Amino acid sequence: METETVSIEISEPQKDPRKIVRKILKTVGNVFFALLMVLIAFMLFFMVRSKMTGGAPKIAGHYMLVVLSGSMSPQFDTGSVAFVKPVDAAEIKKGDIITFKGFAGSDQMTTHRVVGINQKSNGLEFLTKGDANHANDPDPISGENLIGRVSFTLPYLGYFMNFAQTGNGLLLLIIVPGALLLFFECRSLYQSYLNSKKQAKEESNSQEILAQAVGKEER
């Protein structure tokens, strides 16, 4: 009696394009969320350290200074953050935007553009002016009062920094990201559980179909 070989092919279900798109969007969303969390943690670290030391936040050799007025508009506006790199007074050129102290006799830091440079017996003096102002600043700035030169600015970041330094802001920026992270992690674990359960059910159904088909052929 000849034994008949039974060949059964079970076609795999075609992948749904919508599922692929959802998977891509989910991956992109996860990456964006992770980067956002890293950025927030990074900013909080430097701001907390700055608050403890009493100085301006410093990152990669640059001071992070919040712009408090519109005197440099439209170059940058109130609420921006200026990244200021400490440099020697001899490196400053006309047209550079610098941050300095001693404006109008105060210790408050000011960021204006250099419109002239004078060589004095005791060093350099800078003539400065806000881009939005009609006249130069009243007094020349001594090279000793130079904080640094502005490398670049980021708009609106100053509002975030000011808020983060308040009690409510610090609390919100820790609790909300933490809660979101916990939520997405729990959702991801639950989704993995559902997927594994669905896969196990599909494998069980496939084996059942195969067993039934073999039984029919043997009869």
Would you kindly provide a brief summary of this structure?
With 219 residues, the chain is an alpha+beta fold. It contains three helices and eight strands, in the order H-E-E-E-E-E-E-E-E-H-H.
| CATH homology superfamily of the domain at 56-163 | Umud Fragment, subunit A
* CATH class descriptor of the domain at 56-163: Mainly Beta
Radius of gyration: 32 Å
- N-end to C-end Cα span: 14 Å
Summed over residues and divided by their number, the pLDDT gives a mean of: 81
**Strand arrangement, major sheet:** 1-2-3-8-4-5-6-7
Architecture of the domain at 56-163 in CATH? Ribbon
Q: Give the count of helical stretches.
A: 3
Helix content: 40-55%
Write the layout of secondary structure elements.
Layout: H1 17-53, E1 58-59, E2 62-66, E3 81-85, E4 97-100, E5 110-120, E6 123-129, E7 141-142, E8 146-154, H2 157-164, H3 167-218
Antiparallel strand pairs: 1-2, 2-3, 3-8, 4-5, 4-8, 5-6, 6-7
Give your account of this protein's structure:
Helix content is 44%, strand content 21%. With 219 residues, the chain is an alpha+beta fold. The chain has a domain at 56-163: Umud Fragment, subunit A, CATH 2.10.109. It is elongated, with a radius of gyration of 32 Å. The two termini are 14 Å apart.
Considering the chains and any ligands shown, give keywords for the structure.
8-stranded antiparallel β-sheet, 21% strand, single chain, 219 residues, 8 strands, Umud Fragment, subunit A, alpha+beta, 44% helix, elongated
